[in-house]
Design brief:
The complex is a heterodimer. By secondary structure, chain A is α+β, with helices and mostly antiparallel strands. Chain A has helices spanning 12-21, 34-39, 75-80, 82-87, 89-96, 101-106, 109-114, 120-123, 165-171, 274-280, 287-298, 309-327, and strands at 5-8, 25-28, 47-50, 60-63, 66-70, 175-179, 185-189, 212-219, 226-232, 243-252, 255-264, 271-272. Chain A has a five-stranded antiparallel beta sheet with strand order 4-5-8-6-7, with helices on one face. A four-stranded antiparallel beta sheet of chain A has the order 9-10-11-12. Chain A has a three-stranded parallel beta sheet with strand order 1-3-2, with helices on one face. In chain B, helix 2 (88-96) crosses helix 5 and helix 3 runs parallel beside helix 5 (141-153). The chains are: A alpha+beta, B alpha+beta.
Chain lengths: 330, 160
């Protein structure tokens, strides 16, 4: 790792101020992705601001209308928290589908949202990559793109967002609470947190430099009874998704009142399929209707040279995830 | 680069050390404290050879800054044996031959030790899940899993 200056923040205000003051400064929490990228020389911060002593940001607490999860709560703490398991089992399941026991003990909620793509060309500093080095080109576009996007990409970048937790947060309409450089707090609906690559793939999300995630908030919802997180990957554990599906249904009688279908591993951000959701609402929870929703979800998919398999895989995964959501009884 | 002064308890012994910010917990253990039982494998968070317990939980020492460990309690493979007696997990790995070249073994044992503390009677699926971030390039998984199962049948841990 290159040398850098290290500071241990003693307050949110100090953390925000330290990072805002230096364009090449970075916040550090669990470090499971940032340190990895620093070792690979992809990230080269000159100043690290360590957040881990801001213990109030690790709290998980009930709110009047749901739950507030501090940005520094570890993935393991969130996944195993009784309130999360009981009221948001989809979130718990998604987190446990990601990474490994060691990494879930280290990685935080805020860091999980901030993790960067695992596109191998992004990691390989000998190759062009517009995300790593804007204007250098996209080696993946004409390279090996089996793992890459089928939705929402541009000619500048075809990388996918690699996380699992965020797919569940999109399905649950989470809100991200941010503290800005001016000391003000603001909130971003999770659907507006990550970006599509467009012409600026170097920007993964809509945070300004120096803005700090302080919490993720979830409102009460009707999805706890019928939800499922299905992750399809090359190995049974500790691998990134080829396709992941966060599926949630709320029923009224035998009709679907509300539906959520969010796909992971297919775009630069968690890909919420309103097409699939619209196809489900008002219908019965039958396999035929699930199939119709899966077809609707994949209608606009534009596979690349090596990832056409994701279209059929995605359809099957959506059907299976919806079926399992119906089988789940919490 | 200014060094950070940190106090860290390693295998029960409190140490105060000056560490450069860009050094990891793994560097500190192996190079500053000469605790070379913890292995450096991929050095990138993938292989699990560097697994140690920080405040009782298994983590990857290669992607944790030493400076972040100020005030933490760290247990390494050297901290498991007591008065010349192996811990039950070590004992079980020895009995079952749960190792070939041995490079992954300290990390495997630390992950397994943490699993059994949390879940004294794990299923095979739970064992495999718990060691899924510990790669054995000799592919000796069958005997490793058998070793963790055997460890679970041994008498309870002496509390440390």
């Amino acid at each position: 790792m290159r040398p850098f200056k290290y500071a241990r923040a003693t307050s949110e205000a100090e953390a925000v101020q330290l990072v805002s003051a230096t364009p090449t400064a970075k916040f550090l929490a669990g470090g499971t992705n940032l340190l990895d990228l620093m070792k690979e020389d992809v990230e080269r911060p000159t100043q690290i601001v360590d957040l881990t002593r801001l213990s109030h940001l690790a709290q998980i607490r009930p709110t009047l209308n749901g739950i507030s999860i501090g940005a520094l709560a570890t993935n393991a703490q969130v996944a195993n928290h009784p309130l999360v398991r009981q009221n948001y089992p989809l979130l718990s399941r998604a987190i446990l589908a990601g990474a490994s026991a060691q990494i879930r003990n280290m990685a935080t909620v805020g860091g999980n949202l901030m993790q960067r793509t695992r596109c191998p060309y992004f990691y390989d500093t000998a190759m062009p990559c517009n995300k790593r080095e804007p204007g250098s080109g996209c080696a993946a576009f004409h390279g090996l793109n089996r793992m890459h996007a089928i939705f929402g990409y541009s000619d500048k970048c075809i990388a996918t967002y690699p996380g699992d937790m965020a797919n569940a947060l999109y399905a649950l309409d989470a809100t991200v609470k941010i503290r800005g450089a001016n000391g003000q707090e603001r909130t971003i609906p999770i659907r507006d947190f990550h970006r599509l690559p467009g012409d600026t793939p170097e920007q993964d999300n809509n945070l300004q430099h120096g803005e700090l995630i302080v919490a993720v908030e979830l409102a009460k919802n009707d999805f706890a009874k019928h939800s499922y997180y299905l992750k399809v990957r090359d190995r049974a554990s500790y691998a990134f998704a080829l396709v992941a599906v966060a599926a949630a249904l709320a029923l009224e009688g035998d009709r679907i009142k509300q539906a959520r279908v969010v796909l992971g591993g297919v775009a630069h951000k968690p890909w919420r399929s309103t097409e699939a959701e619209d196809a489900l609402v008002g219908k019965e929870a039958t396999e035929a209707n699930f199939r119709a929703a899966a077809e609707a979800a994949m209608k606009e998919a534009k596979p690349l040279a090596h990832n056409a398999y994701k279209v059929e895989l995605g359809k099957r995964a959506i059907v299976l995830a919806l079926q399992r959501a119906m089988d789940e009884t919490i | 680069m200014r060094c950070e002064l940190i106090t860290i308890k390693v295998n029960g012994e409190e140490r105060t050390l000056a560490v450069a910010p860009n050094r990891t917990l793994l560097n500190l253990l192996r190079e500053d404290l000469n605790l070379t039982g913890t292995k450096q494998g991929c050095d990138d968070g993938d292989c699990g050879a560097c697994t140690v317990l920080v405040d009782g939980r298994p983590v990857l020492a290669c992607i944790k800054l030493a400076a972040q460990c100020d005030g933490c309690e760290v247990t390494t493979i050297e901290g498991l044996a007591r008065e010349g007696r192996l811990d039950r997990v070590q004992e079980a790995f020895w009995h079952e031959g749960g190792m070939q070249c041995g490079f992954c073994t300290p990390g495997m044992i630390m992950s397994s030790y943490a699993l059994l503390q949390r879940n004294p009677h794990p299923t095979e699926a739970e064992i495999r899940q718990a060691i899924s971030n510990n790669l054995c390039r000799c592919t000796g998984y069958t005997k490793i899993v058998a070793a963790v199962k055997r460890a679970a049948t041994f008498a309870e841990f002496t509390q440390r």
